[in-house]
Design the sequence.
C-alpha cells in the first residue's frame, strides 16, 4: 500500500494544491500589498521613532535617529499606573460585557430562533447604536451623568447619592462607557455561534440525565466558545487602547487616564514622540502576549 | 433526583396520548402497550406522528393530553433527564467537543456512577470501537458514529431504549449489518427497544411486534408475519409490502367464505380472513402468491381467476421477476415469480390469465382511497 502511494500517483496528488495555491497567492496579492504598505511601514516607522533621541539642536518636538532603548524603560516607569489601569479596565469591562451580552445573544440565537420577526428586530436593536457616532453617544452619557443632570439630581434627592458626590471622572463612569460602547462587539459573535448551535445536542444532553444547568455548562457554553473568544478579543483589545471614553473631554479625568490617553497626550500635546511610540509598541506587545496565552488556554483550537 | 438504574427493560404504556401542533393533530388519542424486553417497531411514512410519539416518551415534547407510564410509573410530567429512557437520535447527536469515550461516559457521569470511564470502555467494546475511544466523533465514519450513539444510550441500561430511525443515514449494506447487530444486542441486554422507522423491511426484520402508524393513529399492530399475511386495512396492505386489491359488492357470504362480484368475476376469501361482510368489500392478495398462465386455468372454487390480460412490464430483481399484467376492465395486477429455473417463459405483450388460491386472499376493513400508493 505504502509503495503505491509513493508511486506514479504521488506527483499527481501534489500537483493540484500547487495550482490552487498559485491562484490563492494571486488573490492574496492586493491584501498583502495593502498590509505591507499600511501596516508594516507605519509599524517600522513607529519602532524607529520609539528609539529616537532628542535633537542636538534642543528644539522641542525634534528628534534624531538613534538607538535609545532607554525610552522603553522611561515609558514603563513613568506610565506604569496607566498601563495597569488600561488592562484592569479592559478586563473588568470585558467580563461585564460578556455577562450582559451572553443572555442577549442566547435569546436572539436560540429562544427567538423560530421567530424571524422578533429576531430581526432584536438584532437591529443590537446594531442600532452603530448608526450614531460613538463620540456622540459617549458625549450623551456625559450629559446624562453630569453634575446637574436630571439623573444625578433625582439620585441625590432620594438619597441614593451624597449631595457632593459625582459620576463623571470616576472609574465607574469610564468602565460604564467602555461596556456600553463594546456590547455589540461582544453580542454579535456570540450570537453567530449560538445561532448555529444544534439544539439536538442540547436534547441529547437532557436525554442523558443532565438538567438544564448542567446541559448549559457542559454542552451549550463549550459549543459557543468560538463566539465567546471572538467577542472577548473584539472587546478586550480595542478597550485596552481606547482613548475616547477615559479622556477628560468625555467620561474620564486625569485619575482615569489609560494608555491611549497618555499616547495621545505625548503625541499631540507634549510632542514626546519617542515615548508615545514606545508606549504604543509596549501596548501592542502586551496584547499579543495576553491574547495568545488566552487563546491557547481556552483550548478551542479545533472549534475555531 | 434522577431515575434509578433498572435490572432490565420495563414495559411502556401510552394512555390516550394526543399531541396537537398549531394547525394539525400529530398524534391522535394513541393507546399502546409494549411489554418489557420486547423489540417493538413503530412503522409509518414521514409525517405519521411516529417521531412525535417517540419524543413524547423521551420527554422532549409535552403531550397535549394523555398519560405515559414506564414500568407502571407515570412519567408524563417528568423532565427528560428524570426519565429512565435513552434515545439513539436520527443524526446521532454526538457531542462534537468531546471524545468518543467522553460521549459514552456522559450519562454515567450525570448519574454519578462509579468508574464511568471503565463502564464506557466496556460499552465501546460491545460495539467494537474501544480502539477509537480517544477520537472525536467527526473523525469517525457514519457507521462508527452510529455505534457510538448506540453505546452512549445503552451504557445507561435504560428501562426503555428509543431508536429514532437510527439506521436511516447508513448505506444499504451497513444497514443490514447494523440491523443484525442491533437485534443481537437487544437480545443480549434484554432491554425494551422502541424502534421508529419508515423502512418496512427493517421493521419486519428486527421487531417482535410492529405497529403500523398513519395520520397520528395506529392502523394495525402485531407480529410481522401476522401483519404481512393478513393486513386489515388498505394502508397496511400497501405500506407493508405490496398488494393487489379488488373492490366489489358482496355476492355471497357464509361461514366458510366470502365472495365479491368484481366486474363480473367472482373473487373469494376465507371467512376467517375477512374484516367486513356487507356492502362493498376490498379483497387483496400478495403479488408473490399470485401466478399467471398462458392458458386459461380450469375453473376451481378454491382458486380465484382473472383474465385475459397482457404483460406490460417485466422487471428483473435478481431473486425474482416482477410482472405487471394489464387486464381490460380490471386494471393492473402485479405478480412476483421466483427465478428458480422453471419460471414461465413469457415476453412483453404475451396474453395470460392470473390466478391465486382463495386461502391466500384477505378481506380489508376499509376500501383503498388511492392515497396509499403515494405513501409508499
Sequence:
Amino acid at each position: 500500500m505504502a509503495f503505491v502511494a509513493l508511486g506514479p500517483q504521488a506527483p499527481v496528488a501534489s500537483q493540484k494544491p500547487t495550482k490552487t495555491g498559485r491562484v490563492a497567492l494571486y488573490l492574496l496579492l492586493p491584501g498583502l500589498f495593502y498590509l505591507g504598505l499600511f501596516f508594516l511601514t507605519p509599524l517600522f516607522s513607529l519602532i524607529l521613532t520609539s528609539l529616537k533621541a532628542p535633537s542636538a539642536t534642543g528644539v522641542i518636538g525634534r528628534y534624531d535617529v538613534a538607538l535609545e532603548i532607554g525610552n522603553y524603560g522611561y515609558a514603563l516607569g513613568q506610565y506604569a499606573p496607566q498601563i495597569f489601569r488600561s488592562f484592569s479596565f479592559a478586563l473588568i469591562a470585558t467580563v461585564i460585557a460578556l455577562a450582559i451580552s451572553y443572555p442577549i445573544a442566547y435569546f436572539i440565537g436560540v429562544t427567538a430562533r423560530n421567530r424571524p420577526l422578533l429576531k430581526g428586530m432584536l438584532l437591529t436593536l443590537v446594531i442600532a447604536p452603530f448608526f450614531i457616532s460613538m463620540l456622540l453617544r459617549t458625549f450623551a452619557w456625559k450629559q446624562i451623568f453630569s453634575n446637574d443632570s436630571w439623573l444625578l439630581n433625582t439620585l441625590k434627592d432620594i438619597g441614593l447619592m451624597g449631595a457632593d458626590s459625582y459620576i463623571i471622572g470616576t472609574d465607574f463612569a469610564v468602565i460604564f462607557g467602555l461596556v456600553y460602547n463594546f456590547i455589540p462587539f461582544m453580542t454579535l459573535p456570540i450570537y453567530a455561534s449560538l445561532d448555529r448551535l444544534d439544539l439536538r445536542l442540547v436534547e441529547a444532553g437532557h436525554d442523558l440525565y443532565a438538567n438544564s444547568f448542567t446541559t448549559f455548562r457542559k454542552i451549550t457554553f463549550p459549543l459557543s466558545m468560538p463566539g465567546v473568544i471572538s467577542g472577548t478579543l473584539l472587546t478586550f483589545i480595542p478597550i485596552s487602547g481606547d482613548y475616547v471614553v477615559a479622556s477628560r473631554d468625555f467620561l474620564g479625568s486625569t485619575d482615569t487616564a489609560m494608555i491611549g490617553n497618555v499616547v495621545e497626550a505625548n503625541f499631540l500635546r507634549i510632542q514626546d514622540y519617542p515615548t508615545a511610540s514606545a508606549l504604543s509598541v509596549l501596548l501592542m506587545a502586551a496584547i499579543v502576549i495576553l491574547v495568545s496565552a488566552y487563546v491557547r488556554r481556552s483550548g478551542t483550537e479545533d472549534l475555531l | 433526583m434522577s431515575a434509578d438504574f433498572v435490572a432490565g427493560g420495563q414495559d411502556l404504556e401510552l394512555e390516550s396520548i394526543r399531541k396537537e401542533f398549531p394547525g394539525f393533530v400529530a398524534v391522535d388519542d394513541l393507546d399502546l402497550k409494549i411489554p418489557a424486553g420486547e423489540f417493538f417497531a413503530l412503522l409509518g411514512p414521514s409525517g405519521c406522528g411516529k417521531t412525535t410519539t417517540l419524543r413524547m416518551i423521551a420527554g422532549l415534547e409535552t403531550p397535549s393530553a394523555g398519560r405515559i407510564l414506564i414500568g407502571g410509573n407515570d412519567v408524563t410530567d417528568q423532565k427528560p433527564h428524570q426519565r429512565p429512557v435513552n434515545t439513539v437520535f436520527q443524526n446521532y447527536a454526538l457531542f462534537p467537543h468531546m471524545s468518543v469515550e467522553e460521549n459514552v461516559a456522559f450519562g454515567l457521569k450525570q448519574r454519578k456512577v462509579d468508574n464511568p470511564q471503565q463502564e464506557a470502555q466496556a460499552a465501546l467494546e460491545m460495539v467494537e470501537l474501544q480502539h477509537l475511544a480517544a477520537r472525536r466523533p467527526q473523525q469517525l465514519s457514519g457507521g462508527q458514529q452510529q455505534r457510538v450513539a448506540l453505546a452512549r444510550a445503552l451504557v445507561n441500561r435504560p428501562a426503555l431504549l428509543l431508536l429514532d430511525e437510527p439506521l436511516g443515514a447508513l448505506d444499504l449494506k451497513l444497514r443490514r449489518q447494523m440491523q443484525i447487530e442491533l437485534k443481537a444486542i437487544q437480545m443480549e441486554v434484554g432491554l425494551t427497544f422502541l424502534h421508529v422507522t419508515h423502512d418496512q423491511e427493517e421493521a419486519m426484520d428486527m421487531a417482535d411486534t410492529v405497529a403500523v402508524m398513519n395520520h397520528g393513529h395506529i392502523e394495525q399492530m402485531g407480529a410481522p408475519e401476522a401483519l404481512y399475511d393478513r393486513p386489515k386495512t388498505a394502508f397496511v396492505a400497501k405500506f407493508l409490502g405490496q398488494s393487489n386489491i379488488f373492490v366489489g359488492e358482496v355476492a355471497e357470504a357464509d361461514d366458510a367464505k366470502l365472495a365479491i362480484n368484481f366486474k363480473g368475476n367472482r373473487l373469494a376469501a376465507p371467512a376467517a380472513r375477512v374484516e367486513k361482510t356487507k356492502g362493498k368489500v376490498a379483497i387483496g392478495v400478495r403479488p408473490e402468491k399470485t401466478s399467471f398462465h398462458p392458458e386459461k386455468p380450469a375453473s376451481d372454487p378454491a382458486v380465484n381467476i382473472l383474465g385475459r390480460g397482457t404483460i406490460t412490464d417485466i422487471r428483473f430483481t435478481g431473486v425474482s421477476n416482477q410482472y405487471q399484467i394489464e387486464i381490460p376492465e380490471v386494471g393492473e395486477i402485479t405478480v412476483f415469480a421466483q427465478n428458480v429455473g422453471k419460471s414461465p417463459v413469457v415476453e412483453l405483450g404475451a396474453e395470460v390469465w392470473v390466478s391465486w388460491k382463495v386461502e391466500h386472499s384477505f378481506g380489508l376493513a376499509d376500501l383503498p382511497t388511492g392515497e396509499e400508493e403515494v405513501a409508499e
Remarks:
- Residues 80-298 of chain A form a domain with the MetI-like fold fold (CATH 1.10.3720.10).
